Amino acid sequence: MKDDTAKTIRSVVRALSVLNVIGGQSKGISAISKELDLSKGTVFDLIKTLEHMDYVIQDQQDDRYRLGPALLRLAVDGIANIDIVEVARPYLQALSDEIGEVAHLGKREGVNASFLLRTTSRTVSRMLDLNSQVGALSPLHCTSMGKVFLAYMSDAEAEQFLERQLTAYTDQTIVSEQRLQEERTRIRERGYSLNIGEFEEGVSSIAVPLRDATGKVVAGINIAMPSVRMPEESIAHFYAQLKATAERIEKELGA
């Protein structure tokens, strides 16, 4: 019984190894056999089982094998069942604890950004009192979270949005279509968005996008603090911390 179990486990491991070797490119049995150090006969049997279940398909042009539609269906179903809030929660909490500031996870909701998660430091009591509870909305054109979604939406959609009459919340709010288009380009080039007192006087924030397995921007994360605690020379440091946090979250999202 134990021998049968061991053989089954070994076969499963080998089958998964075959899928990993094929990855994003088609390969023939000889190449797979060489890479896994398995006999061609063993690889052939594994391939035929995987092919029967649509986990691999054979290219009729060169007889090589590539990943099949069954794997794509599994991936899509898996991504659909991921709760981005629960995935992000421990990483965002760690970020808040590390920097001693408020952090948020947000998604786009029409012409606003909506907060899905808010974390505060468990070690520092100087937290900023923001109206950023879960469900709160913030404009796309003058908040760091909103600007992330503005930057990565299609050009046609952005143009339509920027034709609106945008509200100037402070003296720093950008409402010029040309300047906001330039801001979109700048955000995509450097990888982060900034809000320096554009929505609330004396409050600054920095945000980065979160991408799913397809590379699509599906959410954003940011940190917010009094502007005096975000001098220009600190921005690179905050960006590095946000980027590292985003990469950890994206890894769990399959990106």
Please tell me about this protein's structure.
This protein has 255 residues and is of the alpha+beta class. The chain has 2 domains: 10-80, Orthogonal Bundle (Arc Repressor Mutant, subunit A); 84-253, Beta-Lactamase. It is 47% helix and 19% strand. The protein has helices spanning 2-22, 29-36, 40-52, 69-80, 84-99, 144-152, 155-162, 177-190, 235-253; strands at residues 56-58, 65-67, 102-109, 112-119, 137-139, 193-196, 203-211, 217-226. Helix 1 packs across helix 3. The radius of gyration is 24 Å and the shape is elongated. The model has no long low-confidence stretch (mean pLDDT 87).
Reported by name, the CATH topology of the largest domain is Beta-Lactamase
Strand order of the largest sheet: 5-4-3-8-7-6
**If classified by CATH, what would the architecture of the largest domain be?**
2-Layer Sandwich
- Structural class of the secondary structure composition? alpha+beta
The coarse overall form would be elongated
> How many β-strands, per DSSP?
8
Rg for CA atoms: 24 Å
- What is the tally of helical segments? 9
Order of helices and strands, N to C? HHHEEHHEEEHHHEEEH
Instruction: Report the oligomer.
Output: single chain
What composes the largest sheet? 6 strands, antiparallel
Provide mean pLDDT, rounded: 87
Percent range for helical residues? 40-55%
Keywords:
255 residues, alpha+beta, Arc Repressor Mutant, subunit A, Beta-Lactamase, 2 domains, two-stranded antiparallel ribbon, 9 helices, DNA-binding transcription factor activity, IclR family transcriptional regulator, transcription regulation
